[in-house]
Structure formats: structure tokens, C-alpha cells
């Protein structure tokens, strides 16, 4: 197939064909069936996330981090395929760092937004990352959502992931303009908890990140509402241990002789 | 483009996990009480354990509508049995009846994964484990449902069962005391709830012994 430029999706077509013919099974990914949220309050932006990562019906990480660093004044919550959210935020945060070296100024949230949506649009939704981007820059606080296909929204409060409906029900009933920091954290925590308890894809703990002018506060495991409910008094033993059959230590031969050259390099 | 017409799917999986352990003079049957569909919790308090006869309990996960229908059929058959024989059905008899009932619907199966637990005629614990179309086996312990892949290897490690090929046949009952078995069941469910999203909310443990039936409840993770 002839491409006049831009991206080639030949391999996507090939993979689709292989799956359709039953020749291969597509690999499964670690999906962070997630609840992520963000809101604008009187002095900035608050982001929130749960900490469960799943692969199908199995929990593969009970305490993962879903609030990613973008710039000192910008953070980003990620839902979707774990590898994609991680990779896309890392790539863009690297570009933002280089941009800061070049300009010598603080990064702006719209810069991050544009870089993210360009990348995601270019991959036509195949990079499955659904993001909530928040930050405070010289133009004030900003909150955006970004969909895997590259469309974006600018909102005073936002939710994403499989628990987005549960979380949004809390925001829709409790959000108002000009919230204080503590009120904001309380609503964000409550919204994440709604996702944790009512959506099976979300669970474990609540992470919160508060971004204000010139300051950030990352509250890792701000709330841990799921402690272990039972621990057996006696514990369990596993009888058969790995046996040591032979003990022999062979030291590595010195191939290179290291000579202390003293202060030869100091000139 | 391949043409496809919309199709109706009569099955759903409501998740949940069941465990049963047979001892020398007791049987412990346990299941969580979460009922879910996809990423939604339908209810946090739904019993999966059903009393079929005085000394026979059935725990089932899978599609709860089918489970309900299956329980109704077994209940009706047991009522007829009582009228005809003027006694409760024994646990081995109920085990065979369940197998027949499942196989009767071989080509439109009950989407139910069952563990039958009870006491035999001598008062010894028995556990029967099934697939959806009626293949069954008498065992010392078993686990079925969404968390069974997490629980079964742990039970195997703790309660190694004798090979069914041994001659003379060995007793399948576990060496644990009743209290130890209940403790083991609690541990398995707490661990399964940590890693299986369809297991959680509450654990219902039903203990069957010479004194009768006793129920215990314990909280599990609610996320």
C-alpha cells in the first residue's frame, strides 16, 4: 500500500487479519480499569486516582501510581493500557523538559495538552490512553481531559476510566465554584472512593495531588480504605523446601589488572 | 465486511467463589456473597449456599438465574422423593441427582459451577465437585467459581488429597479439625478477595456436623 506521508497502519490491518483468521491470539495488556478525577478549586487544581491495576479479572498491582509527573507544575492521571499511559506521559514530559531548557520558562498546561493530543491523534486511538491533565501556569489553573483518539475537553471538574460514572455522580452533586483546598481534597477523595467501591475495575487506595501557584503536594495513599479483614492466628507452613545438593564457590578470574594511578588525572 | 446479525446471549457470569472441605465428622461449605456483572456490583449480600436436604448443601457460582432454576428443580425432585420414600435424600443420592439434572441439559447447559457438601450415612463429611454439564467427582475438598484458580493450588498444598487410583481406595476426608478448617476457609477467601475482582464483600460459612447446621459470617474487601 502506498503512503503519501504520515503514519502507516499496515501492521494494524495485518494483525486484524491474523486475529480474524484465528492464526494468532492478540496479546493481553495490563489495563488499569480505573477511576481518575480532577477539579479546579480556588487556588489551583486537585487530581485524584485509585491504585488498582487489573489484567482481566485478576488484580496485578494493588498499589500502583496513576498520577504521572509531566512538569514541576503539571501532573497527569492516566487510564487505559498501563504501558501506554506510562509511555505517553514519559515522552511528553521529556519534550516539556527540553522545551523548558530551550525557552528558560515554566511549561504551560496547553503545551502539554497539545503534545499529548497530537501524539494520540497520530496513532488513531491505537495508543489507548485516557488522561486527566491538570496544572497551574502563568495563565492560571487548567484542567483537561484527553481521549485515546486525541479529542480534548476543558472543564472545571472531570472524571475518566471505568469508574468515571460513579465518580462523576459525586462531582455533579457536590462541586461548586471557589472550593477551599480541604473541601476540594474531600470531594476528590469521595469521588475516588465511589469508584473504588462501586466499580470492580477500581480499588485499593486513594492518591491525591494538589497543584497551586508555584507549589505541588503529592499525597500518595491519602486514604487506605481496604485493610486486610482476617489474618490467621497460626500462620501457614510449606513443608518441602528447596534442597541444597552441592556447595562450591568458583571465584571469577581477574582478566584486567587494575593499577592505582594516583593523581594522574588531576592535571 | 462480514455480515453479522444481532444475537441474543442468554448467559451472564455473576462471578463469586465457592469452597467446600470435608472432615471426619463435619463438612464446611463457604461462598462469598458478592453478585456482579461486568464491572458492576449487583448486590453485596446474596447467598450462594442452598440447603437441599438435612445433610446436604449446595454452593454454586456462575449465572445466578440458572443457579436459581437448578435449585428449584432439585428442591422439587427432593420433595417428590420425600413423598415417595418418607425420608430425606442422602448426600450421595443428591450428588447423582445433581449430575443427572445437569446432563439433562447437555446442549443448553445450566451455566452453574457447583460444589455439593454434606454428611454421608455414617456421618462422615463428603464433598462432590461438578462441571457445568454434570461430570462429577467425590473429593475431600474443592473450590469452584471466579477465584477457584487462586484457591485450589493453596488447598492442594495444605490438604494433599490421596490419589483416586490408589487400591484399596483411601478416604478423601481432610485431617483438619473443624475449627482449623473454618480458619483455612477464611484465609483462602481473604486472599482470593485481594486478587480476584469478583470475590468480596462478605463470606458466608456453613458448617454441617452431628449437631446440625451452623452459619458464620465474616467481612471481606468491599472494593
UniProtKB/TrEMBL annotation, chain A:
Which residues are catalytic? 34
Kindly indicate whether the keyword Hydrolase belongs to this entry.
Answer: yes
Where is it located?
Cytoplasm; Nucleus
One CC-aspect GO term: cytoplasm
**Catalyzed reaction equations:** Cleavage of peptide bonds with very broad specificity
Which Pfam families does the record match to this protein?
Answer: Proteasome (PF00227)
Q: GO molecular function, one example?
A: threonine-type endopeptidase activity
**Do you know which Gene3D superfamilies this protein is assigned to?**
Glutamine Phosphoribosylpyrophosphate, subunit 1, domain 1
Xref: InterPro entries: Ntn_hydrolases_N, Pept_T1A_subB, Proteasome_bsu_CS, Proteasome_sua/b, Proteasome_suB-type
For this UniProt record, the keywords arranged alphabetically read as follows:
Cytoplasm, Hydrolase, Nucleus, Protease, Proteasome, Threonine protease
Q: Where does it primarily localize? A: cytoplasm
Q: Is Protease given among the entry's keywords? A: yes
The Gene Ontology biological process terms listed for this entry are:
proteolysis involved in protein catabolic process
Q: What is the similarity comment for this entry? A: Belongs to the peptidase T1B family.
PANTHER family named among the record's database cross-references: METALLOPROTEASE TLDD (PTHR32194), PROTEASOME SUBUNIT BETA TYPE-7 (PTHR32194:SF4)
Q: How does it assemble?
A: Component of the 20S core complex of the 26S proteasome. The 26S proteasome is composed of a core protease (CP), known as the 20S proteasome, capped at one or both ends by the 19S regulatory particle (RP/PA700). The 20S proteasome core is composed of 28 subunits that are arranged in four stacked rings, resulting in a barrel-shaped structure. The two end rings are each formed by seven alpha subunits, and the two central rings are each formed by seven beta subunits. The catalytic chamber with the active sites is on the inside of the barrel.
Reported function = The proteasome is a multicatalytic proteinase complex which is characterized by its ability to cleave peptides with Arg, Phe, Tyr, Leu, and Glu adjacent to the leaving group at neutral or slightly basic pH. The proteasome has an ATP-dependent proteolytic activity.
According to UniProt, the name of this protein is Proteasome subunit beta
Organism from which the protein derives = Turnera subulata
From TrEMBL, chain B:
Q: Mind telling me which GO cellular component terms the entry cites? A: cytoplasm; nucleus; proteasome core complex
Keyword match DNA repair: no
InterPro entries, sorted: Ntn_hydrolases_N (IPR029055), Proteasome_bsu_CS (IPR016050), Proteasome_sua/b (IPR001353), Proteasome_suB-type (IPR023333)
Q: What GO biological process term is on the record, naming one?
A: proteolysis involved in protein catabolic process
Protein origin, superkingdom: Eukaryota
Quick check: keyword Cytoplasm in the entry? yes
Which compartments is it annotated to reside in? Cytoplasm; Nucleus
> What are the record keywords, sorted?
Cytoplasm, Nucleus, Proteasome
The family database entries (PANTHER family) matched by this protein are listed as: METALLOPROTEASE TLDD (PTHR32194), PROTEASOME SUBUNIT BETA TYPE-1 (PTHR32194:SF2)
Similarity annotation: Belongs to the peptidase T1B family.
Q: How does it assemble?
A: Component of the proteasome complex. Component of the 20S core complex of the 26S proteasome. The 26S proteasome is composed of a core protease (CP), known as the 20S proteasome, capped at one or both ends by the 19S regulatory particle (RP/PA700). The 20S proteasome core is composed of 28 subunits that are arranged in four stacked rings, resulting in a barrel-shaped structure. The two end rings are each formed by seven alpha subunits, and the two central rings are each formed by seven beta subunits. The catalytic chamber with the active sites is on the inside of the barrel.
Its function, per the record, reads: Component of the proteasome, a multicatalytic proteinase complex which is characterized by its ability to cleave peptides with Arg, Phe, Tyr, Leu, and Glu adjacent to the leaving group at neutral or slightly basic pH. The proteasome has an ATP-dependent proteolytic activity.
Q: What is this protein called?
A: Proteasome subunit beta
Lineage of source species: Eukaryota, Viridiplantae, Streptophyta, Embryophyta, Tracheophyta
Q: Which gene encodes it?
A: PBF1
Amino acid at each position: 500500500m502506498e503512503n503519501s506521508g504520515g503514519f502507516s497502519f499496515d501492521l494494524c490491518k495485518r494483525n486484524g487479519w491474523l486475529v480474524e483468521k484465528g492464526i494468532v491470539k492478540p496479546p493481553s495488556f495490563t489495563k488499569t480499569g480505573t477511576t481518575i478525577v480532577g477539579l479546579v478549586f480556588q487556588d489551583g487544581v486537585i487530581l485524584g486516582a485509585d491504585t488498582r491495576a487489573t489484567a482481566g479479572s485478576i488484580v496485578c498491582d494493588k498499589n500502583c501510581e496513576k498520577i504521572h509527573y509531566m512538569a514541576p507544575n503539571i501532573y497527569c492521571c492516566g487510564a487505559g493500557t498501563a504501558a501506554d499511559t506510562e509511555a505517553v506521559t514519559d515522552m511528553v514530559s521529556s519534550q516539556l523538559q527540553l522545551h523548558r531548557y530551550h525557552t528558560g520558562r515554566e511549561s504551560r498546561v496547553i503545551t502539554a495538552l497539545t503534545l499529548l493530543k497530537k501524539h494520540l491523534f497520530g496513532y488513531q486511538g491505537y495508543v489507548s490512553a485516557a488522561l486527566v491533565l491538570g496544572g497551574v501556569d502563568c495563565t492560571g489553573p487548567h484542567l483537561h481531559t484527553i481521549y485515546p483518539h486525541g479529542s480534548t475537553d476543558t472543564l472545571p471538574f472531570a472524571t475518566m476510566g471505568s469508574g468515571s460514572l460513579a465518580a462523576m455522580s459525586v462531582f455533579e452533586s457536590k462541586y461548586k465554584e471557589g472550593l477551599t483546598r480541604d473541601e476540594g481534597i474531600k470531594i476528590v477523595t469521595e469521588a475516588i472512593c465511589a469508584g473504588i467501591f462501586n466499580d470492580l475495575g477500581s480499588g485499593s487506595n486513594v492518591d491525591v495531588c494538589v497543584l497551586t501557584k508555584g507549589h505541588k503536594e503529592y499525597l500518595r495513599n491519602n486514604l487506605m480504605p481496604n485493610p486486610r479483614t482476617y489474618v490467621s492466628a497460626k500462620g501457614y507452613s510449606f513443608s518441602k523446601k528447596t534442597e541444597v545438593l552441592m556447595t562450591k564457590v568458583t571465584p571469577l578470574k581477574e582478566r584486567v589488572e587494575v593499577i592505582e594511578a594516583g593523581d594522574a588525572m588531576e592535571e | 465486511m462480514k455480515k453479522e446479525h444481532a444475537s441474543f446471549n442468554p448467559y451472564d457470569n455473576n462471578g463469586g467463589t465457592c469452597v467446600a472441605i470435608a472432615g471426619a465428622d463435619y463438612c464446611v461449605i463457604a461462598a462469598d456473597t458478592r453478585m456482579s456483572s461486568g464491572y458492576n456490583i449487583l448486590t453485596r449480600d446474596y447467598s450462594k449456599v442452598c440447603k437441599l436436604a438435612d445433610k446436604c448443601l449446595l454452593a454454586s457460582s456462575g449465572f445466578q438465574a440458572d443457579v436459581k432454576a437448578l435449585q428449584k428443580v432439585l428442591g422439587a425432585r427432593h420433595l417428590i422423593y420425600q413423598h415417595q420414600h418418607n425420608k430425606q435424600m442422602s448426600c450421595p443420592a443428591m450428588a447423582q441427582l445433581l449430575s443427572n439434572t445437569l446432563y439433562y441439559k447437555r446442549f443448553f447447559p445450566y451455566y452453574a459451577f457447583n460444589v455439593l457438601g454434606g454428611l454421608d450415612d455414617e456421618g462422615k463429611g463428603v464433598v462432590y465437585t461438578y462441571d457445568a454439564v454434570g461430570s462429577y467427582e467425590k473429593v475431600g475438598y474443592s473450590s469452584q467459581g471466579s477465584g477457584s484458580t487462586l484457591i485450589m493450588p493453596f488447598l492442594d498444598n495444605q490438604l494433599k488429597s490421596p490419589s483416586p487410583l490408589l487400591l484399596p481406595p483411601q478416604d478423601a476426608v481432610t485431617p483438619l479439625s473443624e475449627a482449623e478448617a473454618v480458619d483455612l476457609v477464611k484465609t483462602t477467601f481473604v486472599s482470593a478477595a485481594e486478587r480476584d475482582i469478583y470475590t468480596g464483600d462478605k463470606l458466608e460459612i456453613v458448617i454441617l456436623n452431628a449437631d446440625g447446621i451452623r452459619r458464620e459470617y465474616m467481612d471481606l474487601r468491599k472494593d
